[in-house]
Specification:
The chain is built from twelve helices and twelve strands. The protein is α/β, with parallel strands linked by helices.
């Protein structure tokens, strides 16, 4: 497994999951709200705030024929160009948002959607990059991002195994090995029954690099489950309030919900622990109540121990039940009072 470093933090097996709050369109056109989201994400337990760097013109063209209309899903009826115009984060805000994130003490990440966005983010001094699921097939863009020599987190929604392998190889050909893959269902919101989270374990096995989840489902169950399956990164859309209308709000978490998700993830990590056998510290007080061999009647010296005068019962102060065959039929070496644990000290050695 090839773990990676993001700003001095190790991402990968055996380390706490890296949790990303995706702002996306939840600023709803307000710079002040975007800054408020950064503060709220930090307070809610996020390790990183993420935005997206594009304009309508870097994603598509201003065309209204049928090819450019959204027919189904959350944005049904929208035109692509106008939808991206509502959702994008103005580029002049982005250095200010990074400055705010640095001030708050939360990592700052963005998804570039073309080479001009990469160049812009390089000038900002971005430490690492995100590749969106829809851009997984844009190998020239992936190559250009990888050539910057910085860690990359890449979502794999809709991608076939062959497409993922091609994208990974495009990164590796540049000499950049700092890569995390995210399982993703590119549906907004995603139906947990269709997310196939076991793919996370398979991706870890196949690629031997950190794998996480870009989660568009509602609630925190999928995120906690992903961590149990080995996810090293969790990305979730984040909003101040679902009352603030914007293209992403219907599948975004409020600060309280995000904080609860972080708690569920951290509790899952704590519960996973490590492979351990034997009595744990918290089990020590219960250990004594396991079964053992006890006298259930008064037994005289020299009397034979039988199923009538000894039994396997709780608590566990006597011999373990595995010695039952050895003890049964033996003779008492001393008087044994009812309720006394049977040990080898109170029975005669057999010749």
């Amino acid at each position: 497994m090839e773990n990676i470093q993001i700003k001095g933090r190790t991402i990968g097996e055996g380390n706490p999951a890296y949790i990303i709050a995706e702002m996306s369109a939840n600023h709803a056109g307000s710079l002040e709200r975007a800054k408020e989201i950064i503060h709220a994400a930090k307070e809610s337990g996020a390790d990183c705030i993420k935005i997206q760097t594009y304009t309508p013109d870097t994603l598509t063209i201003d065309c209204h024929n049928s090819y450019f209309q959204v027919e189904k899903g959350t944005w049904a009826g929208e035109n692509l160009y106008s939808l991206y115009g509502k959702a994008y984060t103005p580029w002049e805000w982005q250095p200010l948002l990074k400055e705010e994130a640095d001030k708050v003490g939360i990592d700052f990440l963005s998804t570039p959607f073309d080479r001009t966005a990469v160049d812009f983010l390089e000038e900002m001094g971005l430490d690492f990059y995100k590749i969106a699921s829809f851009e997984m097939v844009d190998l020239p863009l992936i190559t250009y991002v990888a050539q910057q020599g910085k860690p990359i987190i890449m979502s794999t929604g809709m991608s076939t195994l062959e497409e993922i392998e091609e994208a990974v190889e495009a990164v590796y050909r540049t000499g950049n090995r700092q890569l995390v893959l995210l399982k993703c269902s590119s549906v907004y919101p995603a139906d947990p029954s269709q997310m196939n989270l076991r793919t996370i374990s398979d991706m870890i096995h196949r690629f031997q690099i950190p794998v996480g989840l870009s989660d568009h489902s509602l609630g925190s169950l999928s995120a906690a489950t992903a961590v149990a399956l080995g996810a090293s990164v969790i990305e979730k859309h984040f909003c101040i309030s679902r009352e603030i209308e914007n293209p992403d709000v219907s599948f975004s978490m409020t600060p309280q919900e995000f904080e609860e998700m972080v708690a569920h993830v951290r509790n899952t990590e704590a519960a996973l622990g490590k492979a351990v056998y034997g009595v744990s510290k918290q089990e020590e007080s219960s250990h004594v109540f396991r079964r053992s061999i006890f006298a259930v009647k008064d037994i005289a010296p020299g009397e034979v121990l039988t199923e009538e005068n000894i039994r396997i019962i709780r608590p566990g102060y006597g011999l373990k039940p595995k010695y039952w065959g050895e003890v049964l039929g033996a003779r008492a070496s001393v008087a044994i009072e009812r309720g006394t644990p049977i040990t080898f000290d109170v029975i005669q050695k057999r010749k």
